[in-house]
Amino acid sequence: MAAGVKGIRVYLDRRPREYAESITRFQDVHLAAVGELESSFRGELELYESGVYSTERGEGGGEERWEWWELSQGVEACCLLRSEWSEYIGSAPNSEPETYHAPLTEYQEGLSKGYTEFRRIYDEQYRLLQHGTYANTLAAAVARMPNARSLGFFEYDKPTEMELEDSLVTSDYEALSQLITRPLELEAILAEGEGAIASEDCTLAWELPIALHKAGVGLAQVDLRFCLQYRSFSALNPPNQTPADHPAPAAWDDLAATYQNLESFDMGVTVLAPNVPKVKTPDIDNFLGAILSRCGPHLRLLRIDFTNVARGGYGVVGDYNTGPFLRTLPALPRIRELSLNSLALPHAALDAFCRGLGSELAYLAMFDVWLQGGDWADIVDTLRGKMATTRSRGAVECVFNGLLGGEFMGVVEPAVLGDGEVDEYEVNRGEMHQELVDAVEGYVQGLLDENPLRNGGR
Asked: pTM, whole model, 2 decimals?
């Protein structure tokens, strides 16, 4: 059985200390979800009343999930839950629900049981993550799996809204109690405004790979798809030092050695910095730079996606400047698949990176890449040349969308927000912009003979 294991997938169950130690905060984060669901129920009821949905299934213009009476029952359940939970939390002295002496209703009993179980699991998790116990134990097990060469970190799959709907509409109190014991989803935590996330799980991003390396496990493939926090990098920095640009050499060296034979690196990381100055970004640069600094000769696939970087908002084009850690990359002579998404790059960094690519490149994708300073024309010529060898052997694939900066600045306009304010990052890309992007895509793939960015980019 051990020989059949190909890799390890780690799902991060977020049970922050702040919610395990406060039933009030625990209640609030779940009440927010109930409030959203209640609004959804009411919206569906309005559709019934407007005639969009019929009172009989299979008729009318919509595809209703619930009958009218079921939606009404759902709204009533949401209101009752909110009222009973608030009474349970608010009536107890010092908000300590265990001192609440009135008989508990079924919703209150569900909240009490759910919170107790949530805290029990948190305590177990906390003990397991302390002193590298989890990382070292898992590494010792993987060392006995000779073909386990991949590692992935993923966010916990959140409960579906449908599960919460079902429990309220059908008054399934036990199902509701079990739902609220699950890990909290990242969006729900952030919606409270403080972004309180325990950092213990984030430290696994380096503790586990280093433990695997020390146990003799050679990693060839790594997927990182979870939230990185600035404050969680303190374990990699020297004690009693706050500057983020002075990491502990031994820790970073261990991380670099762990990934030195990496062949595939796929990263779609959310980087969150609530109430933290941007000066902390060198932590992220050092982390990614250490991962990629020694694996250049072996790397075949590289995907870097910062679509979900949140620094003042989601989906901001070019919000994360990847120049610092991109410059730490050596040449990538064996790279076959390359994808860059939502990056801001100085011209010198992107130009040097592209020149370091080998001649085996067969797939290239760039989405919302913002070139800061300089022009795209020479970079596009370089990329076309890098795909020439594989193009001569067969089809290559190139996908560009949302290229910005350089020659493209003349064919986009800043987006105007609802109040008339101009957002310099979110841009309107008209037909002319897309036509130029499509032409560049065709040129790199060898479908056009002349660089469309020459002669004024027209």
From this structure: 0.80
